[in-house]
Design brief:
Layout (H helix, E strand, L loop, with lengths): L2 H26 L4 H5 L3 E7 L5 E8 L2 E8 L6 E2 L11 E6 L5 E6 L22 E6 L6 E6 L1 E5 L5 E6 L2 E6 L11 E7 L2
Antiparallel strand pairs: 1-2, 2-3, 3-4, 5-6, 6-7, 7-8, 9-10, 10-11, 11-12
Length: 191
Amino acid sequence: MTRLSRLTLVLGAVAALALGALQPAAAQKKPTIEQFLSPAYPFDLVSARKVDRIAWLAYDQGKRNVYTAAAPAFRPVRVTSFLQDNGTDISDLSISDDGSVVVFVRGTAPNRQGWVANPTGNPEGGERAIWAARTANPGTAWRLAEGASPQPSPDGRSVLYVKDGQIYRVRVTQMPPASKMDAGEQPFIKA
């Protein structure tokens, strides 16, 4: 065997080893569905008027939650604990002027026939409801009433919202309401 043939044989073996080593790495680099669906993204950023606090909605691996951050560090804190990918949308985020309460809507807008999407398969049907959470007590959110377009009062004690073309008010509390109006059962303004 000549020196040139040995060199060619060695270079061929090195090239074969290099290609063999690179092929599994290239196979691992193929994109997966999880890579496309898993990156989190924030949206619907709002800010309090009287304090340095912001809140936003985040979609992370199918889970939709509300986050908040306050000055000076602006460290993100999740204020809701919706930890399942159940397809229930969150929208219409608002924060009180003092930054103590965030309110939002869980559920989709009705379609042309008036149906609300029911991604969880609830036998009672889908729901579009107003929810609230206190920024000082992260992880606890509660349902206030069925409706849309929530607007908290400046002190965060009540929320005005729209239902059936009328404006309603509901108290932001986990305690039983004192009146039909505080429960969102009677319009606040009837037109």
